[in-house]
C-alpha cells in the first residue's frame, strides 16, 4: 500500500510539474517567436544531429598542441525521457577510503561521479542512481529498459546541456564489474548510467548485478 | 554544346548529388559502438578527400574533404561494421578511381586511426588499433607515429631518462608504452636532425600519440590525445538498491511446503496406524 501511495504522489507531482513546464515552454516559445530569436525554442526541441561541419572539421596537430583550458563545469541535472526523468537534480559523488563509489544518500536522485569526465568532454562521465529504496522504486527503476538510440541529456553548471544517445545496455554480476569498459579511456565524450539489477540477495540485503547503460555524445545546446 | 562540356556537367552534377547525399547522412542518430579517425601522414602527397563508406549502413558513410599532410581528425563514432576508406586527390570526382583504398573492420568497443602513410609513390593506408584499455594506475599510455621522412630512425622518451622507443622508422608506429603522469619534457632525437624537446602534460588513464612530421623543412613532434579515461577509477561495482522492488523472499512458498509435508506426514501416520489396527483385528 505504501509503495502504491508513494508512486501515485510522485506521478501526480510529476504531471503537475510537467503541465507547468509545458505551459511555461509555450509562453516562452510565443515570446521567442515574437522577439525573433530561436535560441530558447531550440532547447525545447529534440537535439539536432551533431553539427556536420564540426564532425568533419580536421584538427591540425599544430593548432591542437596548446592544452585545452580545464573545464570547471559539473553535471547538475539529468533527463531520461523513456524513464520519465526530467530535469532531475544530480548530486556529486565520490569514492570511499577503499576506492568504492559512494552512491547517493537519496534514492530519488542520481549522482555524478565528480572525478569522472565532465559531460561533453572526452572520456566517460559516470552517473549512478538507486534502482529502489526499501519501500519502492528509485530514480533508476527500470534503467534496464533503455534501448540503443534512446536519448539522455545532462545539464551542466555552466548552462550547457549535453545530449547523449544510448548505445548499449548490459546487466553484469558485480563481482565481474567491467571496470575497463566503464571507466577506461574512450576516444569521444561518453556517458555511463549505473544502477543495480538482477537477483536480490535477501540475506546480504544487496543486488548481485549492476545495470550499465553506455551512451555517446550527440550534441550540446 | 560540345560532348566534352556535356560530360563535364554530368560529372559535376553526379559529384554534387553524391556530396549532398553524404552531407545529408545523419550518422549521429545511429547506434555507435566503434570510433574511427583519419590522418594524412604522407609528406609529399597533396591534399586528399577521404571517403568512408559503409555497405551495410549507407547512412554512416561520410567524406572529409581537403585533408592535408599532418592533419589528424577528431574521432567519429560509427556503428560497428565494415567500412571502405578511400583517398582521392582533393576535388576529384567521387566516382573517379581512388588513389588508394582500404577496408576497416570496425569492431564494437574499439577505436581505429586510418592513416595515409609512406611517400606518395608508395602511399599506403595503415589501420592502427588505438588502445582503450586502462593503463596501470599512475601511468598513461603513449605511442609514436613517425610521419617525418627526414627522420628515418628516431629515439624518444622522457628527457634525461632512457628512451622508451628506439629506431622508429618513417611510416611506422610503435606499440603503446606506459609513461609517467604530469608535465615533463619529451625528448626526440633523429639521425641528421636537430633534437626536439616537447613539453607535454600527461593525464591519468589517458592515451596519446606522438606524431612526428616534417613541417616547413623542420622536424617536429606533436602530442595528440587519443582517449581519456575517468581520472578516478572506483573499485568494483556500485551498491544502488535496497530491494524494495525485488520479488519477496520465498517465505510463503517455504511455509506452504512445510505445511504440505506436515499434512502428508500426518496422513501417512494415520494410514500406518489404520493398517496396524486392521491387522490386529
Concise synopsis of the structure shown:
The complex is a heterodimer of chains A (221) and B (281). Chain A is α+β, with helices and mostly antiparallel strands and 221 residues long. Chain A has helices spanning 2-35, 39-44, 52-56, 61-64, 179-183; strands at 75-80, 85-93, 110-113, 123-128, 151-156, 161-173, 189-201, 206-220.
Give your account of this protein's structure.
The complex is a heterodimer of chains A (221) and B (281). Chain A is of the alpha+beta class and 221 residues long. Helices cover 24% and strands 33% of the residues of chain A. Chain A has 5 helices and 8 strands; from the N terminus they run ααααββββββαββ. Chain A has helices spanning 2-35, 39-44, 52-56, 61-64, 179-183; strands spanning 75-80, 85-93, 110-113, 123-128, 151-156, 161-173, 189-201, 206-220. An 8-stranded mixed beta barrel of chain A has the order 1-2-3-4-7-8-6-5. In chain A, a hairpin with a 4-residue loop joins strand 1 (75-80) and strand 2 (85-93). The longest helix of chain A has 34 residues, at 2-35. Chain A is globular and about 45 Å long. Chain A starts with a helix and ends with a strand. Mean pLDDT of chain A is 79; it is low at 1-6, 8-14 and 25-69. Helices cover 19% and strands 41% of the residues of chain B. The radius of gyration of chain B is 32 Å and the shape is elongated. Chain B has helices at residues 3-24, 251-280, and strands at residues 34-40, 48-54, 62-67, 76-78, 81-89, 100-106, 110-117, 124-130, 139-146, 154-158, 165-168, 177-180, 182-190, 193-202, 206-215, 218-228. Chain B has a 4-stranded mixed β-sheet, with no helix packed on it. Chain B is an alpha+beta fold and 281 residues long. The chains are: A alpha+beta (221), B alpha+beta (281). At the A-B interface, helix 3, helix 4, strand 4, strand 6 and helix 5 of A face strand 1, strand 3, strand 15 and strand 16 of B.
Amino acid at each position: 500500500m505504501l509503495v502504491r501511495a508513494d508512486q501515485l504522489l510522485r506521478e501526480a507531482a510529476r504531471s503537475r510539474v510537467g503541465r507547468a513546464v509545458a505551459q511555461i515552454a509555450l509562453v516562452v516559445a510565443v515570446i521567442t517567436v515574437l522577439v525573433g530569436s530561436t535560441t530558447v525554442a531550440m532547447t525545447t526541441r529534440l537535439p539536432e544531429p551533431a553539427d556536420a561541419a564540426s564532425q568533419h572539421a580536421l584538427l591540425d596537430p599544430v593548432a591542437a598542441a596548446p592544452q585545452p583550458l580545464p573545464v570547471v563545469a559539473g553535471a547538475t541535472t539529468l533527463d531520461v525521457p523513456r524513464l520519465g526523468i526530467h530535469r532531475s537534480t544530480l548530486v556529486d559523488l565520490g569514492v570511499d577510503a577503499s576506492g568504492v563509489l559512494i552512491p547517493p544518500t537519496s534514492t530519488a536522485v542520481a549522482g555524478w561521479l565528480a572525478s569522472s569526465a565532465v559531460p561533453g568532454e572526452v572520456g566517460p562521465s559516470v552517473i549512478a542512481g538507486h534502482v529502489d529504496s526499501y519501500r519502492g522504486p528509485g530514480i533508476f527503476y527500470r534503467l534496464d529498459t533503455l534501448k540503443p538510440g534512446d536519448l539522455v541529456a545532462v545539464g551542466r553548471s555552466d548552462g550547457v546541456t549535453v545530449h547523449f544517445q544510448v548505445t548499449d545496455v548490459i546487466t553484469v554480476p558485480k563481482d565481474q564489474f567491467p571496470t575497463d569498459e566503464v571507466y577506461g579511456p574512450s576516444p569521444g565524450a561518453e556517458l555511463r548510467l549505473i544502477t543495480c539489477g538482477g537477483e536480490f540477495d535477501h540475506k546480504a540485503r544487496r543486488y548481485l548485478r549492476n545495470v550499465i547503460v553506455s551512451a555517446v555524445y550527440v550534441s550540446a545546446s | 554544346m560540345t560532348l566534352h562540356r556535356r560530360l563535364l556537367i554530368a560529372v559535376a552534377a553526379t559529384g554534387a548529388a553524391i556530396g549532398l547525399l553524404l552531407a545529408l547522412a545523419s550518422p549521429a542518430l545511429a547506434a555507435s559502438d566503434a570510433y574511427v579517425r583519419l590522418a594524412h601522414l604522407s609528406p609529399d602527397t597533396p591534399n586528399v578527400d577521404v571517403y568512408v563508406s559503409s555497405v551495410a549502413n549507407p547512412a554512416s558513410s561520410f567524406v572529409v574533404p581537403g585533408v592535408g599532410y599532418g592533419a589528424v581528425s577528431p574521432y567519429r563514432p560509427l556503428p560497428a561494421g565494415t567500412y571502405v576508406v578511400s583517398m582521392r586527390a582533393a576535388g576529384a570526382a567521387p566516382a573517379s578511381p581512388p588513389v588508394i583504398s582500404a577496408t576497416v573492420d570496425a569492431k564494437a568497443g574499439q577505436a581505429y586511426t586510418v592513416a595515409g602513410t609512406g611517400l606518395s609513390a608508395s602511399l599506403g593506408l595503415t589501420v592502427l588499433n588505438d588502445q582503450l584499455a586502462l593503463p596501470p594506475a599512475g601511468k598513461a599510455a603513449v605511442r609514436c607515429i613517425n610521419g617525418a621522412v627526414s627522420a628515418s630512425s628516431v629515439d624518444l622518451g622522457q628527457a634525461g631518462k632512457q628512451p622508451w622507443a628506439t629506431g622508429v622508422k618513417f611510416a611506422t608506429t610503435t606499440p603503446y608504452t606506459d609513461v609517467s603522469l604530469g608535465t615533463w619534457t619529451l625528448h626526440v632525437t633523429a639521425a641528421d636532425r636537430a633534437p626536439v624537446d616537447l613539453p607535454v602534460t600527461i593525464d591519468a588513464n589517458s592515451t596519446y600519440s606522438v606524431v612526428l612530421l616534417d613541417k616547413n623543412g623542420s622536424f617536429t613532434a606533436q602530442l595528440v590525445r587519443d582517449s581519456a579515461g575517468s581520472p578516478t577509477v572506483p573499485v568494483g561495482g556500485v551498491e544502488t538498491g535496497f530491494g524494495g522492488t525485488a520479488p519477496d523472499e520465498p517465505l510463503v512458498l517455504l511455509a506452504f511446503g512445510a505445511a504440505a509435508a506436515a499434512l502428508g506426514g500426518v496422513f501417512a501416520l494415520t494410514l500406518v496406524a489404520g493398517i496396524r489396527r486392521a491387522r490386529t483385528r
